[in-house]
Write a structure and sequence with these properties.
By secondary structure, the chain is an alpha+beta fold. It has two domains: 4-110, N-terminal domain of MutM-like DNA repair proteins (Alpha-Beta Barrel), CATH 3.20.190; 126-249, Helicase, Ruva Protein, domain 3 (Orthogonal Bundle), CATH 1.10.8. Helices cover 25% and strands 22% of the residues. Strands 1-6-7-5 form a four-stranded antiparallel sheet, with helices on one face. The longest helix is centred in the last third of the chain and has 20 residues, at 178-197. The chain is elongated. The protein binds a DNA duplex through residues 1-3, 6, 54, 68-73, 84, 100-105, 136-139, 142, 145, 147, 154-157, 200-201, 203-204, 206, 223-224, 243-246.
DNA sequence: TGGAATGTTCGGCT
DNA sequence: AAGCCGAACATTCC
């Protein structure tokens, strides 16, 4: 579940319970390579909690805790550990439980926030978005998924944004007119903001730090609606593969 | 039973 | 050299 809106929702529900807390102990139930790094969180005080693309950053008195939810990661305040719990941060007041069925997520201690990521999808300015797009020849859908280009967009919101902007997912980025690029930027901000306001999309079992699901999945217009009628024109939604990911679009509304 | 699922990374090829 | 592809990671669900 974890794209920008889901991570943002987790951060908003988590932050009030974490800021000012000290991490007394780190319990690890994983053999993943990040475990050694995660152990360094012990003893640190959490000064600020921030979303950084799809990362949850705990700004500490020394360094940062960087949590990535991968595909199935969940971060829950005060929850009981279960079968898929990979890490528990024991605080001076309460605890945070990190569950992750597929284990693509991670909990790490870093000297500084991760580098190599592009500007945040919700804060990049229209002009910069247009300029960066003009420098890329790749397919627009693949580019939106590329965190080095913009950070925060994943498979759901890439499809939903392209649908709203009426842009074909295979369109080469640098071949879009300035108007269409601006429209795409506007639609990305719109879709992400609406999704944040809805608490994200719960497509399998996503919940925020308080265990509450989001409801933006009821607003999806193309994502996982293959074969269903387009809400705008009635044409059947099509599914193709782009960058090895399922890509859903309306063949009539989104022309090449 | 095989394929697909909210993600990232790496190696190889052009 | 950017960009593409396939594979890998691990587990569940239908």
């Amino acid at each position: 579940m974890p794209e920008l809106p889901e991570v943002e929702t987790v951060v908003r529900t988590l932050a009030p319970r974490l800021v000012g807390r000290r991490i007394h102990a780190v319990i690890l139930k994983t053999r993943k390579a990040w475990a050694a790094s995660a152990a360094k969180l012990r003893g640190r005080r959490i000064q600020r909690v921030e979303r950084y693309g799809k990362y949850i950053l705990l700004h500490l008195d020394r360094g940062v805790g960087a949590i990535h939810l991968g595909m199935t990661g969940k971060l829950m305040a005060g929850a009981a550990p279960g079968a898929y719990t990979r890490a528990v941060l024991v605080l001076d007041q309460g605890r945070v439980v990190f569950d992750d069925v597929r284990q693509f997520g991670s909990v790490r201690w870093l000297k500084r926030p991760p580098d190599g990521l592009g500007p945040d999808a919700l804060s990049i300015l229209p002009d910069e978005f247009v300029t960066r797009m003009a420098q890329r020849r790749g397919r627009i859908k693949a580019l939106l998924l590329n965190q080095a280009f913009v950070r925060g967009i994943g498979n759901i919101y890439a499809d939903e944004s392209l649908f709203r902007a009426r842009i074909h997912p295979l369109a080469p980025a640098n071949r879009l007119s300035k108007d269409r690029a601006l429209r795409l930027h506007r639609c990305i901000v719109e879709v992400l903001s609406e999704a944040v306001a809805s608490g994200g999309s719960s497509i399998s079992d996503y919940v925020d730090a308080d265990g509450r699901p989001g409801w933006f999945q009821f607003q999806h217009r193309v994502y996982q609606r293959t074969g269903e009628p387009c809400v705008a024109c009635g044409a059947k939604i099509r599914r193709i593969l782009v960058a090895q990911r399922s890509t859903h679009y309306c063949p009539r509304c989104q022309r090449q």
